[in-house]
Design a protein that fits this description.
The chain is α+β, with helices and mostly antiparallel strands. The chain is built from five helices and eight strands; from the N terminus they run βαβαβββααβββα. It comes from Methylobacterium adhaesivum.
């Protein structure tokens, strides 16, 4: 039997604190969080809500967003605690009709998150979420550690590199300076 693995939120730099309305703390168990967008008008999302839709994993403890997760070893007690914590949010914040329904939904979300972790421990995963004809789709990619010495200017300074994909989707841009200014206003 293989070890239980779940995604944990990962923060390589402070950008999550600028791009999301609320950023998950590093090290939280995470789920994709797509259920937060099921009943929303996705075409009207702007700013931080749009970024959360496009690329945010949901931290189970904080119910806040993270751009990246890392595949991590977990035990049954940690898995059960994540289910219980997520169920609490589903009931208190999203109006699940009772604890039993909340637990069933939370277990499904945690099980789906675990299914994404059929990768080596320590693998970093990013998500890109889209909406097409009323259906939400999620695409996942792994980020790979950059071999040493490739970048003489930043030798050893960058832990990861982004891998180009063959997808023909519009490039997503974030105005980090503008977001930082609006946050301090």
């Amino acid at each position: 039997m293989s070890a239980l693995k779940l995604p944990r939120t990962l923060r390589l730099d402070p950008s999550d604190a600028f791009v999301f309305a609320e950023a998950a703390e590093p090290g939280e168990w995470a789920v994709t969080g797509s259920f937060l967008f099921w009943d929303r008008d996705l075409t009207s999302l702007t700013g931080k809500d749009r970024i959360a839709f496009r690329s945010g994993f949901l931290g189970v403890r904080s119910f806040a967003f993270s751009t990246l997760v890392v595949v991590s070893e977990a035990n049954e007690a940690e898995r059960d605690a994540a289910v219980a914590e997520l169920a609490g949010h589903l009931q208190a914040r999203l109006g699940a009709p009772d604890r039993t329904a909340a637990l069933v939904a939370a277990r499904e979300e945690i099980d789906f998150a675990a299914s994404l972790c059929d990768l080596p421990i320590g693998t970093v995963v990013a998500m890109h979420r889209t909406e097409t004809k009323g259906a939400i789709s999620e695409a996942f990619r792994t980020l790979h550690q950059k071999p040493g010495g490739e970048d003489r200017l930043h030798a050893g300074a960058r832990a990861f590199r982004f891998v180009e994909t063959d997808e023909d989707e519009p490039e997503e841009r974030a105005d980090l300076i503008g977001l930082a200014r609006s946050r301090t206003s």
